[in-house]
Amino acid sequence: VSRQLKEEIRRGFARLEDPLAGLLAMLESSGDWKGKGHSLGYCITTELQLWMKEHPAVPQSGTKLKKLQARVLRMLSQCPANLLDPLISIYQLHTADRNCLLEHVSHLYLQGDYKEAAILSIKLKLQPDQDVEKMCTPLLLQDKANLVEDYVREYPELQSKLLQTLDTWCDPSFNIRDIMRPYQGLFRYKPEKFNRRVLSKLVFRLLERFNVDPALCPNVINQRHLRTLNYLFYKRFVEKTMTEENWAEHIQSTVGENQWLQGHLVQSLLHHCDACGVARWARHCRVPPEMLPRAVAEELQKLHVQDRVEEVTKADNYEDSKKKDYYQLPIPRENIHFLQTWEETLQCWEKVLQPGQVVGVDMEWKPPFGMVGKPHVALLQLALKDEVFLLDLPQLLKQAEAEGDKEKLPRFIQMLYSDAAITKLGYGMSGDLSSLAATCSALKDTEKQMQGVVDLLAVDKQVDRQSPECSHEDRGVRQPEKGLSLLVQHVLGKPLDKTEQLSNWEKRPLREKQILYAASDAYCLLEIYERLCKDPKSFSLGPDLTENLMGKQSKKPRAKKQLNKQEAPSPSGQECQGPRTEPSCPPAPISPREFSVVCDNMLQGLGRYLRCLGVDVWLLNNEDDHRKAAEIARQEGRVILTSGLPYQTLRSQVGEGRCFSVNCSAKAKEQALQVLRHFNVQVSLTDIFSRCQ
Prior knowledge:
Strand order of the largest sheet: 1-4-3-2-5-6
Radius of gyration: 35 Å
Number of helices: 32
Shape: flat
């Protein structure tokens, strides 16, 4: 709105004896304000609202105001949403007679203007005096769940009433058509959106949003537990990807002492097991004998503890056969540490929070079968080259709270993720961090602050699946690999054993298989990273893995700013290439005899070429860890020559300018020229072949 128009509007108000009546007369006689957007009527109304704040004597009261309020009410159902708040404020509708307001909303409802009735009720805070089921039913039939949520947002009692109503409709014995029948001629009627599945999702969304006790909705909770039960049977008896111990834990926690679910458990067992098997599981899940068929009840009486011997033997044989098919942890069992106290954890952090450290990070949580809200992390795994730490997060958080220092754990985790000198490896880290934030609210901004992070999910989309490393024997009817397991298979030759993935990670103590699975999940990231750094070409990856991995961890614009910080200077040799980054004052010229370097193991060709020119070169062997280059550089004052991801790790371990990233795709001669130019090394004829080759 132009300044001139605003001034003209305000002069008009000043000339009017009754600005409120004048505005109303203008709106009633003009159709301009009924359209969407900022009409002239909208501009005049909002200017009056501002003008009245500057002239507090203008607002009226008494009979005259009541008459104006009655006229405004008739207009509200027709006016656009952006005019509602200004008109309610100007004409003080919150002070109007409540019965009149309720009567007006009721009139809108009876006319079939359900959306308008609900919006006006929300604006005027009339919900406590209305029937929540009556107001919300037509809105749900019109697929306006968001408006229903707004309607009950500020009223816990109405939230509970609405959820109980929705839960009643989700009872399988309830005829949902009885609800729909009176509204069949409804405008924008969407009966396909009004079914138990959609309503169940809405119930879970509202339970989470309003933090209501799920026990209020037994029908919806039971139905979800039943779906979980069916899924567990599928995983165990059809897909056969879940161990017996793992399956038993979940069945027991899902069914509990709920007799309705116990009945479904027995029926499912009868489809997949003989009478003896049904009896054994019925005893395990404490199913009352009177719920069992006669043949199963008879078997139950015969059961003895020795019946498990055969199963255990089978399980042992199965474990032995699995070792040759799946990725095996290359470190001894005693190097896997399960940490439940802060004394142990502090020792872990001293090792992890070292500049130049490379850490495989993973998290586990109880599968969200029937769970409301985000799952909470039960285990945080941190893998180093020689050991793995498994942090019992619930126990550590509980201990920190008891000691009056809730921020202890978040502080350490934020230090880890925000330190650019520590390389963190993960797979699908965004999901992990989301659950971490749900576990501890102080960590909700971790993803925005993280630096030095490599998400291997990005490289998973680029690895050449046809590379020779991908060849493997057909392993029978096992389910095809996916996710991290597939990446491990392609890069390291064997997939991960994921039979413990859906374990109950909150149950303590953890089983030995769970501990080994959790450690493997984190440690394999280190081995993938090392293999890709050493031999990117075998997987059709570019030489600059930092661009491939670090540069694609997030597509969100807000994360780009953080990424740019951690990528400057670029670890692909651009720190020193081209005029835009070339130092304005080059270093003083030196001879090859004065220049000593240590070449990382992917640059052996460059190292041999530099040695031909008289440079003092130390070459890392193929089996050497990249970090050995930093040790040699510090001890002997050498410059590190490296490429790709190791640059991120190594540059933080030596002085400024003592680590240089070379373009790995260039030929040895081009690489050598790049190095010589950057360090201003002047080669003479007498330098060539001056060192032993």
